[in-house]
Amino acid sequence: MFGFGLCLAILIGIFFVLYRTTFGSAVRATMLNRTAAQLVGVNVDRVSAIAFGIGVSTAAAGGVIFGMTNAFNPGSHYDLISRLLTIIVLGGLGSLRGAIIGAVGMLIIEDVTAVVISPVWASFAFFLLLVIVLVVRPQGLYGIRVRERI
């Protein structure tokens, strides 16, 4: 419960920082178009450094909670990295809402598959859903389609 509460508090805090402050506007502008953000007066290097620090601190908090609730073993990082990358790709690169929905969807699909079919098929079902989503919508659920310059 502590881990869930901390995760929820961090998520709400990041949401309010990104969508309710001028710093959040600067982060979003820098993310969308670095040159345009510089032209309107955003100190892009400072914003990037602070955003990187926020990301590192969020990852550290997640690592602490994971360490408190699970046992570490030398081979566990492969499973974690593949799940995290899959959540980001499923939700859409750069989309906070997509990452949240991707993570919740992953939990639901894996748990339902583990109960209904078999725990062995739980990870396979999620990766199968990822392939289906990427075939239908290559930019992810909430990703922005990028046009290539001709």
Write a concise synopsis of the structure shown.
By secondary structure, this protein is an all-alpha fold.
How do the strands and helices of this protein lay out in sequence?
Layout: H1 2-20, H2 22-32, H3 34-39, H4 44-69, H5 76-91, H6 96-116, H7 122-136
Rg measurement, Å: 18 Å
> What average pLDDT do the residues reach?
82
The fraction of residues assigned to DSSP E strands is under 5%
Q: State the helical fraction.
A: over 70%
User: What count of structural domains?
Assistant: 2
Oligomer category: single chain
Count the DSSP helices. Answer: 7
Shape summary: globular
- The computed structural class is mainly alpha
Which residues sit in consecutive blocks of at least 5 with pLDDT less than 50? none
How many DSSP-defined strands? 0
The helix/strand order is: HHHHHHH
The major β-sheet equals: none
Q: State the separation between the terminal residues, measured CA to CA.
A: 52 Å
